[in-house]
Design brief:
about 0% strand, 19 helices, about 475 residues, mainly alpha
Length: about 475
């Protein structure tokens, strides 16, 4: 029996929030200890190392989810594909780490050398990164529980040992542990699902597809990291700190959308391989509607409450990040549509080449705009450049994906969505007039805004709200029944 998409969505949301939200949660504490300069110093090194972890991963995570998802019920093929991808991943990791070792002296001229050494562990231990396998077999429950354990331990360690501004190296060690710890549990747990063997492997059959996907992933990563890299080169560390915290906030909000969309990936891969195209189209459309349902109110709500978010979450020293948060908030919508159109639908139908072309165009646009705008208006210029580049790639990906999904305009869905957002906006404006700025106003704004939006959309019978409410009730009923 196939696992429930709704149940997997709940588990996947928890996993994504922990994976992407962990840096944001810890930053609430760390920002007050390390201040903008310390955050900027760490962000610069993480960005440098990310280029090498991208090379080490080689596009395997997305490809692996699709491949394993298509044969998740076939133990023999599942084991063979797993073994082949693990070997490819090991080779790419070794190559990437060697290149990093050659480059580290030059990188150390701008970045903190000790931080580079600590973060390099993320490259080396990528050899044990098999998260894609667990997502391919839709084991989101295990992923969420494992990640929760590691993150909780990391937060405890951070609160215990990171107490002063010069503890940034300790923080870096704990941050890396939060990722590497997952790899350890994956390796120990993997025997339950698969058998690793080097006999009868056909590694070459994956190479072309992996490199096509890697080209698109590489282009995406380059233009998503280029902004931080160029801010680090052209601006002061505190400005990179403002931008780094702003984009982290956007990504943790976006994690809700990717968490729900991610569970559609292995299912769509399976449906397309089985030539169940009508079901494929309906499932993909449901994913798009689900993302839009959360992305639009999240973007508008964040724009309204941005003046409370930066100083409350990161400290008063991060107040200049308010304008950056407002600029980047548009990315929540853009990221959501791009993710499900490109990294879910197009990969599921073997159109990785479309993603590659779109991201190369976007990378070029981002590079040009970064050079112009960062010099002109500083770190906010990087935000504008990122929004323009992401909007470009999303437009292309949506156009390509629409060939495989029969989109029909649903007036009732959009009318109820817009109406619910209007009620949410009115509630947020009312909170601003009634309460003074600060933590209490932020908590009330987020809580009331979410509640007003969800329940008003339920009252107006928005199909996604109705579906979510039904699935939540069924989820808890099944837990109680056990």
């Amino acid at each position: 029996m196939q696992k429930s998409l709704a149940r997997n969505s709940i588990y996947s949301i928890a996993y994504k929030i922990l994976s992407i939200g962990y840096p944001l949660i810890t930053t609430v504490y760390i920002s007050r200890i390390l201040l903008p300069e310390g955050i900027g110093k760490i962000a610069l090194v993480r960005t440098f190392v990310s280029y090498f972890t991208t090379l080490a991963a080689l596009g395997i995570p997305n490809y692996g989810i699709k491949l394993i998802g298509s044969v998740q019920k076939n133990y023999r093929l599942r084991s063979q594909y797993f073994s082949e991808l693990v070997i490819i991943n090991a080779l790419s990791t070794i190559v990437s780490f060697c290149i990093f070792c050659v480059s580290i002296e030059k990188l150390g001229q701008k970045a903190d050398f000790k931080l580079l050494i600590v973060f390099s562990s993320l490259i080396l231990f990528n050899i044990f990164n098999v998260d894609w396998f667990y997502q391919g077999i839709e084991e989101y429950g295990y992923i969420a529980i494992r990640s929760t354990l590691i993150k909780v331990i990391s937060i405890i360690l951070m609160l215990a040992f990171v107490r002063h501004a010069n503890d940034y190296i300790i923080y870096a060690v704990i941050f890396c542990f939060a990722t590497i710890g997952n790899y350890f549990f994956n390796v120990v747990h993997i025997k339950k699902y698969v058998h690793f063997s080097i006999k009868g492997l056909e590694i070459q059959r994956h190479v072309k597809k992996i490199f096509i996907l890697f080209a698109s992933v590489c282009a995406t990563e380059v233009y998503t990291m280029l902004d931080s890299t160029m801010i680090g080169l052209f601006c002061e560390e505190r400005e990179l700190g403002y931008y780094s915290n702003s984009i982290s906030l956007i990504r943790v909000v976006f994690s809700f959308m990717t968490a729900m969309c991610a569970v559609y990936f292995p299912r769509l891969s399976f449906l397309y391989k089985e030539s169940r195209l009508k079901e494929f189209s309906a499932t993909a459309q449901q994913g798009l509607d689900l993302c839009n349902y959360f992305a639009f109110p999240a973007t508008i709500g964040l724009i309204i409450i941005a003046d409370d978010v930066a100083p409350v979450l990161f400290g008063k020293s991060f107040a200049p990040a308010t304008s950056t948060i407002r600029i980047l908030s548009v990315l929540i919508i853009i990221f959501s549509v791009a993710y499900i159109a490109g990294h879910v639908i197009l990969i599921a139908v073997n159109r990785e080449i479309d993603i590659m072309y779109a991201t190369i165009v976007a990378a070029a646009i981002n590079a040009i705009l970064n050079i112009i705008l960062i010099r002109a208006i500083g770190y906010n210029g990087a935000g504008v450049a990122t929004v323009c580049a992401e909007a470009t790639v999303t437009t292309i990906l949506y156009y390509k994906a629409s060939k495989y999904v029969k989109r029909q305009y649903d007036f009732r869905y959009w009318a109820s969505l817009i109406g619910s957002i209007l009620f949410m906006v009115l509630s947020l404006i009312a909170v601003k007039f009634i309460f003074d700025s600060g933590l209490m106003r932020l908590i009330i704004s987020v809580t009331l805004g979410c509640a007003v939006f969800f329940f008003s959309s339920c009252i107006m019978k928005n199909k996604i709200a109705t579906y979510i409410w039904k699935q939540i009730k069924e989820f808890f009923k099944s837990k109680i029944a056990r």
